[in-house]
Design a protein that fits this description.
By secondary structure, the protein is of the alpha/beta class. It has one domain: Rossmann fold, CATH 3.40.50.620. The chain is built from twelve helices and ten strands. α2 packs across α9. The N and C termini lie far apart (63 Å). The protein binds iron/sulfur cluster. The site of iron/sulfur cluster has 8 residues, from α6.
Length: 309
């Protein structure tokens, strides 16, 4: 593997050694997982989360003061989530890690596919629904499983994209929540999120999986082409080719600036959602708002169909 951003060319052995060194250093420097933690690992079955599952199992499974549980959110995307769910089940079975599955159909009242059928893809991109549903359900499942942390498989590419996306959308609130440890820790019921792989480029996570025989589902979500993230990814990849190290530079710059900005930033005061009790920036959380909006859109459509029949 040639690491263009450092100029190194590494054989499998040295690549793997460097990978472990970087993950361990990031975990300990940021204090992401500590004694007493019960860690819920967000496991989709894709490469990032299955590598994360294997990495955390290797590092912590022999520790008696730290425990792991895997959590898969089934958003309800036909033909996409079922195969990856099977990969996730097999991975947990092999490693002996408890696996919890939480579904949008049960908790949100409808699958993502159903939400997209009702709302279309113009007004609200599927990823907007999906992101809110996943974050909400991951927190609910983690809390039910008694977790003190949720670890997600975000990689360097994801993080660089998130920084630029927040700029492009002008979403300052979201930008303030970027970093290795995410979220409002002061809110009871919110399980803090940590990202152990956030300084590893996506390609290197894929290579680590292949070199270590880690099974993962390579499928791409059928809605991904509709996401802003896709355009931002293309732009960053083009910059990375022309200027190696761009992704690291974007994330490091944000990491250096944000702590200073966060101190003086007064966003919405966290409060409990009036309907579900989860963390919210207003009287109703986004998850419940979406559920209500979809209910009324569906009713409107049925009325319209009834009128024209
Ligand atoms: Fe969800 Fe969008 Fe990712 Fe598909 S691409 S899994 S809809 S966030």
């Amino acid at each position: 593997m040639e690491l263009h951003y450092t100029g190194e060319v590494l054989c499998a052995k040295h690549f793997t050694r460097k990978f472990w060194r970087r993950v361990k250093r990031h975990l300990s420097k940021e204090g992401l997982i500590t004694s007493g933690d019960r860690v819920g690992i967000g496991l989709s079955g894709g490469k990032d989360s299955t590598v994360l599952l294997n990495v955390l199992h290797e590092l912590f499974s022999r520790r008696t003061d730290i425990s792991l549980v895997a959590i898969t959110v089934d958003e309800g995307i036909a033909g996409y989530r079922s195969p990856s769910l099977e990969v996730a089940r097999r991975a947990c079975g092999r490693l002996g890690i408890k696996h919890v599955v939480i579904s949008a159909r049960d908790e949100f009242g409808r699958t993502l596919d159903e939400a997209v059928r009702i709302a279309g893809t113009q007004e609200q991109a599927p990823c907007s629904y999906c992101g809110v549903i996943r974050r909400h359900l991951l927190n609910v499942a983690a809390r039910r499983a008694g977790c003190t942390k949720v670890a997600t498989g975000h990689n360097l590419d994801d993080e660089a994209e998130s920084v630029l996306m927040d700029f492009v959308r002008g979403d300052v609130n979201k930008m303030m929540r970027l970093g290795a440890k995410v979220g409002v820790r002061s809110f009871k019921g919110f399980v803090q999120r940590v990202k152990p792989l956030r300084l590893i480029p996506e390609k290197e996570i894929a290579l680590f999986a292949i070199l270590n025989g880690i099974e993962f589902d390579p499928a791409v979500c059928p809605y991904s082409h509709l996401a802003l993230r896709e355009d931002v990814r293309d732009a960053i990849n083009a910059l990375e080719v022309a200027h190696p190290g761009t992704k690291f530079a974007i994330v490091r710059t944000a990491d250096r600036i944000l702590p200073h900005v966060q101190k003086g930033f007064f966003g919405a005061v966290p409060q409990a959602c009036g309907s579900c009790g989860e963390l919210s920036s207003g009287p109703l959380c986004r998850f419940c708002q979406y559920a209500e909006e979809l209910d009324s859109m569906e009713k409107g459509k049925k009325k319209g169909n009834g009128g024209s029949a």
